[in-house]
Amino acid sequence: MIPYSIDVTEASMFSFASNAVRNGHLQRSSARCFSDVAHKPLLNLHGLQARYANATYVAASKVGGLETVERELMGLYKSSQKSAAFAAFLENPMISRDEKTKYVASMDKLSPITRNLLITMAGNARLNELPKVATTFSQLMKAKRGEVEAQIISASELSAAELKEVKAAMQSQVPKGKTVIIEAVTDPSIVGGLQVQIGDQFLDLSVKSRIEEIARTPLS
Name one GO cellular component term (predicted). Predict the structure, then answer.
């Protein structure tokens, strides 16, 4: 009976130890899953650019580097728009992956997260997508800050007081905790009034639209 009892005890201890290891593994896995969820972007975007932007967002969030990465990516985006040489470097398929990887790896003024993104994209021959990845990352950051982009189109430039009044009116229409960020654009062709684009909603209060409406209305 004793040997059997010993065997059972040893088996129980082994089972307990195995379960503890498994449970520990599960706990660590659960912790990792919870950690990933905690750092997941609030905006659900899809596509190639979004995959790079989402992965970079999670990595940057885990080390508290979101603002740094956003600033660096937008700096690279602006360079791609202003520098023909840099834009050509990103776009040129004749430059090998190794050459591009070596170049971006030498950009030691960038944070490790941003540099690793560039190295990965260069290795996948996707550096030409960098401007779109940068703007997609910016979208994720705006969602994090609760920013709602709105475009106000007017026939002539609005005064500061008028912009403030329009912003206040729009702010009252968005959910609590959100902040309206206005881009003011002038377009003389609308004659007068305003056109407002906020998210996927468009409101046309222009004189031009009223004139067109009158033109479509048959006279009795």
Answer: membrane
